Amino acid sequence: MSNRQGFIGVFDSGLGGISVLKKLVSQLPHEDFFYFGDTGHNPYGARSADDIFDLSKAIVDNMVCKGAKAVVIACNTATAVAAHKLRTMYPQLPLIGIEPALKQACDAHIYKHILVLATPVTLRMEKFHQLRDRMCACNSANVKISALACDGLAHRIEQGNLDAPDLDNDLRTILAPYIGSVDAVVLGCTHYPFVKDRIVSILGNPVCFDGAAGVAHHVRDVLQDRDLLNDQIERGCVTFATSAHDAHQLDLYEQFYHLPQ
User: GO MF annotations for this entry (predicted)?
Assistant: First the structure.
């Protein structure tokens, strides 16, 4: 039996996945979304793989119990660690993750040096190494793919003060080895699009890629294939929740949801 009226669950280690949520709402305006930010356990990028899996499983379990018809893991780190195993545990549930949009950048066949920015955990996972190896094999010696672990950057963005005067200095320090040397940059963490313009400016204006739009298109296609698209005429609603014991956090989620992007 079709569960067209069920909601789509979306989760991340914090507010970063809101960058994906916005693309989902744009692509699927008649769907209801429940967004959960695990800010109480942020940052995932500093946790063990076992920890990240346990946290992700608990979130998915809760969403399924609440009636989710699909779940989007809007976190590159949680996708790399937990998505495959969670799919085996919930074989009937459309469970869509996100990975660095490296294939999209490589498929253009015009970039000589592509830089992937991600958390240390994402870059350590075999899933990323397999993706990188496939892209290198497909593009032979025509492209150089570099990866930079941006330790602490997601957590810094999670704090919400994007106008802090020292944020640009921190970004310059992180990106220093690649300033002026790359012609494409892949944002491999869903927090990073919120500082995309600064990253691009500091690096010297490379073309920027992130996986959010591709995920939104994929979710739409999966729901259509499974006859799960909501057939209501009205616009759907978006509900936010968080593991943080701070009422201000939900206000911050709303603020980031309404940022121009």
Answer: glutamate racemase activity
